[in-house]
Amino acid sequence: MKAVPQDFLAGARDTIPILLGVVPFATICGVAAVSVGLTPFEAVGMTFIVYAGASQLAVFQLMGAGSPWLIMVVTAWVINVRFTMYSAALAPFLQKEPIRRKAPFAYMLSDQAFGVTMTRFSNELPTRPAWYFYGSAATVWLTWNISATAGALLGTLVPESWGFDFAFPLSFMALMFAALQDRPGVAAAIVGGVTAVLAKSLPYNLGLVLAATLGIAAGVLYEGFLNRPETGVAP
Amino acid sequence: MNPFATWAFFIAIGLGTFLLRFSFIYLFGKVAMPDRLKRALRYVPVSVLAALVFPAITSPAGALDLSFGNVRLLAGIAGALVAWKTRNVLWTIAVGMVLLWVFQTL
């Protein structure tokens, strides 16, 4: 089938421009992993196993603060819950593939591949959409792992006195502003952030879980408030 | 953490993350995501990220410090402005780190 290699290559090609953002971010993840005390081998292994930058950075920040491992695992999962939304949106395009392909395709799902793929699908659907997605996802995956490996090797050269741990909150800021779309989102961020500051002294870093929960609740409540009926009639 | 625990820790995060990615690709046609859940999920990233950012810049030494002596707060606010304007990770890190070093040496 000729459509397979064609669509795979088209997906890879459309992904090249965004690699400009993937390379530095993945490199930073590699440097960050080593800066909190992982060996370069562990850093590379973690990137291969987890393959989700934002959640890995969150784990590194918490590692530096000495959090219990259960809190770190839950935090990583919570940050990665967004993948279920991507999974639901992509599912109809992958449904014809056998499960032995669905599984590796799912493993390679990333924010960037999802963005490229859905943009293309909304304009023009390729003959084999699953292979277009795979072309994009594999390109991001390969670039990410090579860059993170380079970062892990470079990271051993970065002295602690540089305060590199400050790069964590800085990168989260950029990701947060990129994810802010509307007022309920802003409410969620403010409530989540302020709660985290106030609840910082809770044991086991539970303040983070409480903050995320209240932030989500604030967003949902605000959205419900905006969508209320205008009539003013009591329910 | 000993080496075994470290790898078990990575696998726990990775396995959970894989299941989140695989969820609806696997379940398609069997289960649909409830609308309410879909709406709530939209607020997960901003809530968690804000909860990681705020304490890291307002209480870098552990206790709340909103004074001018807190260089991470100053550099962090500048970084937030860059993040807001550019939404770019690299620019935010570059400006924030350089300002942190400048404020530390002042």
Number of strands of chain B: 0
DSSP summary, beta strand count of chain A: 0
Terminal CA distance of chain B reads 38 Å
Structural class by secondary-structure content of chain B: mainly alpha
Distance between the termini of chain A: 59 Å
Mean pLDDT of chain B: 91
Poorly predicted runs of chain B are: none
Major sheet of chain A, described briefly? Answer: none
Describe the structure.
- The complex is a heterodimer of chains A (235) and B (106).
- Chain A is mainly α.
- Chain A contains twelve helices and no strands.
- Chain A has helices at residues 3-15, 19-35, 40-50, 53-64, 69-80, 82-94, 99-107, 111-123, 129-155, 167-179, 183-198, 206-226.
- In chain A, α3 packs antiparallel against α9, α4 runs antiparallel to α5 and α8 (111-123) runs antiparallel to α9.
- Chain B has 106 residues and is mostly helical.
- Helices cover 75% and strands 0% of the residues of chain B.
- Chain B is built from five helices and no strands.
- In chain B, α4 packs antiparallel against α5 (89-105).
- The radius of gyration of chain B is 20 Å and the shape is extended.
- At the A-B interface, α2, α3, α4, α5 and α6 of A face α1, α2, α3, α4 and α5 of B.
Q: What are the salient characteristics of this protein?
A:
heterodimer, A: 235 residues, mainly alpha, 75% helix, globular, B: 106 residues, extended
